[in-house]
């Protein structure tokens, strides 16, 4: 099995002993393709930005509220046992977003 990595404008190929037999899809995406997450880059960036703003403590921040509202629209599409799904619901509840137990 060959692993491909991008370094600037160059692609570097490495042989992976044994191949990915028995690996999870996350392991394949992370080890073989160098992705940090199996989620889309946009979703991950939105979640990271929302959590960073939430950590600052300003629950009235309009950017935070907009990001969480965007994430809340994706929540029903996430697997029921996904921890991110619960995290999004909790953010929406704490921020009292419409349709999530708030005002």
N-to-C span: 54 Å
Average pLDDT reading: 84
Q: Give Rg in angstroms.
A: 18 Å
Number of domains: 2
Task: Give a quick account of the main beta sheet: strands, pairing sense, barrel closure.
Answer: 2 strands, antiparallel
* Low-pLDDT windows of residues: none
| Fraction of residues in β-strands | 5-15%
Number of strands: 2
Strands side by side in the biggest sheet: 1-2
Q: How does the overall form come out from the CA principal axes? A: elongated
- Helix fraction, binned, reads 40-55%
User: What class, by secondary structure content?
Assistant: mainly alpha
- Spell the H/E element sequence: EEHHHH
Tally of alpha and pi helices:
4
Structure write-up:
- The protein has helices at 25-33, 41-55, 62-74, 83-94; strands at 2-7, 10-15.
- β1 and β2 (10-15) form a beta hairpin.
- The model has no long low-confidence stretch (mean pLDDT 84).
- A two-stranded antiparallel ribbon has the order 1-2.
- α2 crosses α3 (62-74) and α3 packs across α4.
- With 103 residues, the protein is mainly alpha-helical.
- It folds into 2 domains: 2-33, no CATH class; 41-94, no CATH class.
